[in-house]
Design a protein that fits this description.
The structure holds two protein chains of two kinds.
Chain A lengths: L1 H12 L2 H27 L2 H6 L3 H12 L11 H19 L2 H8 L3 H34 L9 H29 L2 H22 L16 H7 L17 H25 L3
Chain B lengths: L3 E10 L2 E11 L3 E6 L6 H8 L6 E6 L2 E2 L10 E4 L11 H10 L5 H10 L15 H13 L5 E5 L7 H16 L3 E5 L3 H7 L2 E6 L2 E7 H6 L5 E5 L3 H12 L4 E4 L4 E5 L3 H10 L6 E5 L3 H9 L19
Parallel strand pairs in B: 3-8, 3-9, 6-7, 7-8
Antiparallel strand pairs in B: 1-2, 1-4, 4-5, 9-10, 11-13, 11-14, 12-13
Helix pairs in contact in B: 2-3, 3-4
The chains are: A mainly alpha, B alpha/beta.
C-alpha cells in the first residue's frame, strides 16, 4: 500500500494543474476575505462591532474565515475549485492513457484506488485549512481592535466542517470520473448538479400535488451536503427539515460512499 | 531468471472472441517474437498477461501472477502503447512518478534516460516528442527497474533505422544477459534478425510456437532450384524419390524447383543419373514466407484489390 501512496503522491505533485488549482483556490479565498474585511473596516464597522453579540461576532468571523459559505445558498467556492484536483486524479489516467502505466507500476487495483482517494482527500483538506487559516489571519488584522468576540473552538469546528465537506465533494466527483471515465463530464456534473439539477427538482416540488412532499428535497445530496456548513437556526434535528449538520453529513456521506463503492467495483472489473 | 507461462488466455469483446485459449511459454535468455496479422490479438494478449484487461486464463512470471508481485517494475518491464504519459509532465518527472512506487532513486531515472538517448530532452514535455521519442521514453520506463522480463508491444514503431538497430542490439544484449524478452512487431525483417523463438497468432488463436530456425526450416518456402537442360528428366527422377513427401516443378526454360530434398540430395541424384547441372541453389524461406504461410487467411482486416477477390467474382 505504501508503494501506491508514494506513486500517487509524486503523481499529483508533479502536475502543474495541482499547484495552480491549489494556489488559485487559496489566493481567491483569501483575496475575497481581504477585500470584504477591508470594506467592512473602511465603512465604519467600529459602530457595528460595538453593538455586536458574541453570536453575531462568530457569524462575521466564520463568514470571513470560510469564504461566506455559512449561508444557504452560498457555494463553498474553494471546495469547488480544489475538487477539480480529484477529477484530474482519475481523469488524466483515462484521458492520456496513463492508467496502463499506473497499473503496470502498481498492479494492485484496490491499493491504487485507496491511494488516490486518500491523497486527494489529504491534499484538498490541506488547501481548505490553509485558505481558512490565512483568511482568518487577514480578517483578524483588518478587524483588530473592534472588540469582536473570537470563539476559536467554534471557528475551528467551522473549518473542520469545510474540510469534511470538501473531502466528500472531492470523493463524489472522483467517483463520477471513474464511473464515466470522462473528466469533462465529471467537471460539468459537479457544477450542474447542485446549481441546476437540484434547483429544478426543488422547483418541481413547488407544483400543486407535489408541494406537500417538498420536504423530501432536503435529501437531495448536494442540498444535504451544504447543510454540513450552513448556519440554519431552525435545523434542530438530524433528519429534520432542514437537516442539521450531522444529517447533512450522513446524507452526503452516504451518497459519496455509494458512488465510491460503485467506482471501486467498476475499477476492479473493467479493462484498464 | 524468469519464465513466463501463459495458460488458457481468452478475451471477447461484445461476444466476438479476440483471444481464445492461448498458451505459450517464454524462456529466459531468449527474444521471443510475438507475430500475427492486424487484429490477431497480440496487444490484447499482452494486456491480459499483465492483468490490465480482464479475461480468462492466467499468466505467471516465475510462478507468480503479475498483480501479486510487489514492485513489479523491478521484475517485469512493459511497453504497451506509444505515448502513455501526461503531455505536460516532463519526461524525467514521468519516470520519477513510476520510480516513486518502487523507491527507485532519481539517479536510475537519469541513467535510463541516457540509455535510451533522451538525456537532452529529459526536462521537456513529451507533448513535443515525436513518436520515436515517445517509444524511447516508454522503453526507458520499461527498463527503469532493471527487470529480468520485458514485454514490449511494437517497440520499433516510429523509430528511425538507426533507432531500430539500436533497439534490436539492446534487446539482444538484454536477452543474452539471461532476461526473458517478449516483443511484438510487424517488422518481420527486424524480427528475423532479433528473435530466437516465435509465437504466431491468427484470429486470437495460437498457430505455432517454436524456435525461428525450426519454423523456417519446415517452411514450404525452403526449396532447391536447379538449372539443367534435362529439366523434365530430373523432375521425373526427383518425383520418384520424393514419393509424395515434397514437390517438384519443371519449367520449359530449364529450371526445376524442388521442396522436400536438400541441395546435396538433388545434386547427388543428378550425378547418379548423368544429368548435366548448370546451377544448384538452396533457397532459404524467409520469416516473411513463414509468416504468410502460417497466417494465410487469418487477417482480420483484408484490403480489396489485387490478389483478393470476393467469392464468385474472381
Amino acid at each position: 500500500m505504501s508503494d501506491a501512496f508514494a506513486y500517487e503522491w509524486r503523481r499529483i505533485t508533479t502536475l502543474r494543474s495541482t499547484w495552480w488549482l491549489s494556489i488559485g483556490a487559496v489566493v481567491l479565498g483569501v483575496g475575497l476575505t481581504f477585500l470584504v474585511a477591508m470594506a467592512l473596516r473602511l465603512s465604519g464597522a467600529e459602530m457595528v462591532a460595538e453593538a455586536m453579540s458574541a453570536d453575531d461576532s462568530l457569524i462575521v468571523l466564520e463568514m470571513l474565515t470560510t469564504q461566506f459559505s455559512n449561508f444557504d445558498p452560498m457555494f463553498y467556492l474553494v471546495a469547488y475549485i480544489v475538487a477539480i484536483i480529484g477529477i484530474f486524479s482519475w481523469g488524466h489516467e483515462y484521458r492520456h492513457g496513463m492508467i496502463r502505466a499506473t497499473l503496470t507500476a502498481v498492479p494492485q487495483r484496490r491499493a491504487v484506488w485507496t491511494a488516490k482517494y486518500a491523497v486527494a482527500a489529504g491534499w484538498t483538506a490541506t488547501v481548505v485549512l490553509v485558505t481558512c487559516l490565512l483568511s482568518f489571519a487577514v480578517a483578524a488584522l483588518w478587524l483588530a481592535g473592534l472588540g469582536l468576540d473570537v470563539d476559536l473552538p467554534a471557528l475551528a469546528a467551522a473549518v473542520v466542517r469545510r474540510m469534511g465537506y470538501t473531502v466528500l465533494l472531492t470523493w463524489v466527483v472522483m467517483s463520477l470520473t471513474v464511473l464515466v471515465r470522462n473528466q469533462t463530464f465529471a467537471l460539468v456534473v459537479m457544477y450542474l448538479w447542485p446549481m441546476a439539477i437540484e434547483t429544478v427538482v426543488k422547483g418541481i416540488f413547488t407544483i400543486p400535488g407535489l408541494s406537500e412532499h417538498r420536504e423530501l428535497t432536503r435529501f437531495l445530496p448536494f442540498n444535504a451536503g451544504g447543510r454540513i456548513m450552513q448556519r440554519e437556526p431552525s435545523a434542530d434535528a438530524v433528519f429534520g427539515d432542514p437537516l442539521n449538520a450531522v444529517g447533512g453529513l450522513v446524507v452526503f456521506g452516504l451518497f459519496a460512499a455509494v458512488l465510491m463503492v460503485l467506482a471501486l467495483a467498476l475499477f476492479e472489473r473493467r479493462d484498464a | 531468471m524468469a519464465v513466463i507461462e501463459a495458460r488458457g488466455l481468452g478475451k471477447s469483446y461484445g461476444g466476438k472472441p479476440a483471444v481464445t485459449d492461448l498458451s505459450f511459454d517464454v524462456r529466459p535468455g531468449t527474444v521471443t517474437g510475438f507475430l500475427g496479422p492486424n487484429g490477431a490479438g497480440k496487444s490484447t494478449t499482452m494486456r491480459l498477461m499483465l492483468g490490465l484487461d480482464r479475461g480468462a486464463g492466467s499468466t505467471t512470471f516465475d510462478g507468480r501472477p503479475f498483480d501479486t508481485i510487489r514492485q513489479p517494475m523491478r521484475e517485469v518491464g512493459a511497453l504497451l502503447e506509444a505515448k502513455p504519459f501526461h503531455p505536460t509532465r516532463t519526461a524525467r518527472n514521468h519516470l520519477r512518478v513510476l520510480a516513486a512506487g518502487h523507491r527507485i532513486p532519481d539517479r536510475r531515472v537519469d541513467e535510463v534516460l541516457g540509455l535510451v538517448g533522451l538525456s537532452e530532452v529529459a526536462r521537456k514535455k513529451p507533448s513535443t516528442f515525436s513518436m520515436g521519442m515517445g517509444q524511447r521514453l516508454g522503453l526507458a520506463a520499461a527498463l527503469l527497474g532493471d527487470p529480468h522480463t520485458l514485454i514490449l508491444d511494437e517497440p520499433a514503431n516510429g523509430l528511425d533505422p538507426q533507432g531500430i538497430r539500436w533497439m534490436r542490439d539492446l534487446l539482444k544484449r538484454l536477452a543474452s544477459e539471461g532476461r526473458s524478452v517478449l516483443v511484438s512487431s510487424h517488422l518481420l525483417s527486424e524480427m528475423a534478425l532479433m528473435a530466437d523463438e516465435l509465437v504466431v497468432l491468427g484470429r486470437g488463436r495460437l498457430i505455432t510456437h517454436g524456435p525461428v530456425a525450426e519454423l523456417t526450416g519446415r517452411s514450404a518456402g525452403n526449396r532447391v532450384l536447379v538449372r539443367t537442360p534435362q529439366a523434365r528428366e530430373l523432375a521425373s527422377l526427383v518425383g520418384a524419390r520424393l514419393a509424395g513427401t515434397g514437390s517438384v516443378q519443371a519449367t520449359d526454360d530449364g529450371e526445376v524447383s524442388v521442396t522436400g530434398l536438400s541441395a546435396q540430395e538433388v545434386g547427388d541424384l543428378a550425378f547418379e543419373h548423368r544429368i548435366r547441372v548448370h546451377g544448384l541453389t538452396a533457397q532459404q524461406a524467409s520469416l516473411e514466407d513463414v509468416f504468410l504461410e502460417l497466417t494465410g487467411g487469418d487477417e482480420e482486416f483484408r484490403a480489396r484489390g489485387a490478389g483478393h477477390h470476393e467469392g464468385g467474382r474472381a
